[in-house]
Amino acid sequence: MTMLAGLVAQAEGQGDDLVTLRALIEEATEAGAARALAHIGLHDDRAGTDIIELRQLIQGWRDAKRSAVSAVVTWAVRAAVAALLVGIAAKLGMTGLIHR
User: Fold this and answer.
1) Are 13 and 3 in contact (CB under 8 A)?
2) Which among 34, 35, 82, 97 would be 20 to 30 A from 64, CA to CA?
3) Across residues 24-50, what is the average pLDDT?
4) Backbone angle region of 41, left / alpha / beta, with phi > 0 → left and psi within -120 to 50 → alpha
5) Confidence of residue 97 (pLDDT cuts 50, 70, 90)
6) Torsion sign over Cα 52, 26, 7, 5
7) From CA 47, how far away is CA 43, in angstroms rounded?
8) How many angstroms separate the CA atoms of 96 and 19, rounded?
9) What is the pLDDT of residue 23?
10) Confidence tier at 95 by pLDDT (50, 70, 90)
11) What angle do CA 33, 19, 5 make, to 5 degrees?
């Protein structure tokens, strides 16, 4: 049982009105939520738009990160293939052809 449920049960056991208790709890949670949103600057009419923009910004960051990782991997593979080809050319004695 949660602490809140325990307090409600205790108050109910003491004869307190359950409807009043629930109303108090609801008011307290709404006030707490409003205070938390105000604390982080999301208390006005633009809050919904701000959240959408934040989500778009985060998605853009994720896309950029994914693209950067992909580019690094692509260049690493290209460098490895180039090094392999240079090694094969050296092994076959084809390096003299490059200097001519």
Assistant:
1) no
2) 82
3) 90
4) left
5) low
6) negative
7) 6
8) 94
9) 82
10) low
11) 65
Helix 3-13 × helix 18-39 angle, to 10°: 150
Which residue type is seen at 56?
Answer: Q
Tokens (6 digits) for 11 = 């108050």
Model confidence, pTM: 0.53
Answer for the pair 43, 35: CB distance below 8 angstroms, yes or no.
Answer: no
> Which token pair is 41?
């600057």
Kindly report the average pLDDT of the chain as a whole number: 87
pLDDT at 98: 57
N-to-C CA span, the chain: 85
Q: Is the dihedral of CA 32, 34, 39, 40 positive or negative?
A: positive
